[in-house]
Structures are given as structure tokens and as C-alpha cells.
Amino acid sequence: MGEGQIIQRFEGKTAIITGAGSGIGRATAIKLAQQGANVALFDLKDDRTMETENEINRMRKGAARAFDVDTSNTERVEKAVLETVELFGGIDIVFANAGINGVLSPIEDLKIEDWEKTINVNLNGTFLTIKYTIPHLKKNGGSVIITSSINGNRTFSSFGMAAYSTSKAGQVAFAKMAALELAKYKIRVNVICPGAIATNIDQSTQKTDQLKDIVIPMEFPEGRQPLANAPGHPDHVADLVTFLASNEAAHITGTEMFIDGAESLLC
Q1: Cα–Cα distances in angstroms (integers) from residue 177 to residues 52, 190, 198, 224, in the given order
Q2: Is the dihedral of CA 50, 259, 248, 132 positive or negative?
Q3: Catalytic annotation present for 164
Q4: Which of 152, 159, 196, 243 is the one with CA 20 to 30 A from 89?
Q5: For residue range 119-137, what is the model confidence (pLDDT) as tens digits?
Q6: What CA–CA distance (Å, rounded) separates 223 from 262?
Q7: Exposure of 254 by Cβ count < 10 A (0-12 exposed, 13-18 middle, 19+ buried)?
């Protein structure tokens, strides 16, 4: 193998990635495609998603297809999964990554519709993505990776994020149940728990005026990520996802992995 040549670990494989238009999803889609995978990009079909598709197809013609998917919508998820199988011939890797922070509010002021939206996108979206890909993964086995968070699993200091943290804790429990249920089909299910990563998720975050009433002032050492003194990069997470998707992680399942530069150890 020549110097700088990328190992084709996923040649002939197909990956579904939700939230693929930006951030961690985009970085992972590009990395998997670089290593030979065909990638189905599940996201709302906007300029960012189309640019991800175009970038991958410039690299490897026909390796990517964007699907207009709201992961909390049963019909749209099921339809996109079936279209992926028809286009690429199967499914080998599923990265359930789509998520939102939602509305940040004290529990007593949090509207039920805002609670439900966060749960629907983060937790129900994960359930639907896995549910509809299982029949196809069963054919040859495969790898499922779910994006959870340190919030709700290792840290509980993000004020106003009761719905978000609940959804993220639920993803970890769901993954462990799925890992055991699907082990006999050679389907591995793991969870990644990132800390602060430089993505655009905060752009869709809404903070209510009442949030200031519950915030407790806390002093942290300079920098929230001791390892790098800065938020992580989507490529850091993409590297972990790529490892978990590969045969190098063949004996790893039902496990949550924290990737936060030791951020959560400060709490």
C-alpha cells in the first residue's frame, strides 16, 4: 500500500447515517466513504445535506445519496430505508446520530409539546432508525452506533436540559437491550457519548427566560476539556464511529464510549 493510501475497510458495505448533513454525521459519512462504503444520508434535504452528497460523489461517483428524512416520522424513515436497500443492495452499518438540544427550560415551565419534540427526535428517532434497519442487518450481521451524550449518563449539570438528558440516558439503555437481543444475528450495537463538539447543534437550541432562575453558578478549571482545552472536532468522533463500524471492533457490543477530552471528569 502506497504512502497516504486510505485502507478500504468498508468496500462493498452500505452505511445509513442520520443527521448526515452537518457536524458529526457529515464527518462520519465522508470518512466511511473514503474507506469504501456507500452512504445513505438521512437528513432534512437542505443545502448542507446536498453539499455532503456532492462532496462524497466528487470523491467516489455514486457512493452517496441524500434522502429527505425526519427521523421522528415513521413513514419517512421506513421509506428511506427501503429505498436505500433498493439502491445499494443492503445495509451493513447504521449510525443513528440525528438529534436536537430542544428547548432549555425549568421542568415546571417546560411545555409538554417541547418535551415531546425532544424525546421524539432523539429517542423515538433512534428507535425507528434501528427498528426498520434490523431486518436488513440480519442478513449478514452488521454494526449499529448510536450518538448519545455525556449529558444524562455521566454529567447532570446542564441546566434546563431535562428532556435532552432523559432522551440521551434512554438511548444508552435502549442500545444495551438491542445489543443483547441482536447478538445472535451478529449485529453489534454500541453508543458514543460525546462531550462538547464543535458542531451547529446549538443553532437550534431555544432557551426560555425562566432558565436563569435555576442556574447555579459553578467555577470550572480554565477550559472545559482538559485534554485539549477546546471542544472536540467532528472528525474525532467520526474516527471512533469508523472504528466501531469496522471488524477491528468485532467483539465490542452493548458498550457506551465517552469521547469528551475528560470534560465529564470535572463534574
Answers
A1: 32, 11, 30, 32
A2: negative
A3: yes
A4: 243
A5: 999 999 999 999 999 999 9
A6: 11
A7: middle
pLDDT at 1 over 80: no
C-alpha distances out from residue 162 to 88, 118, 168, 229, Å? 39, 10, 10, 27
Nearest partner of 145 among 15, 40, 23, 26, judged by Cα? 15
CATH fold for domain 14-257: Rossmann fold (3.40.50)
Nearest alpha carbon to residue 65 among 91, 82, 47, 83 = 83
The single residue listed with the C-alpha cell 466513504 is 33
Which candidate in 67, 95, 132, 164 is catalytic? 164
* pTM for the whole structure: 0.90
C-alpha cell at 77: 424513515
Q: Distance (Å, rounded) from C-alpha 34 to C-alpha 197?
A: 22
Higher local confidence (pLDDT), 204 or 142: 142
DSSP 62: T
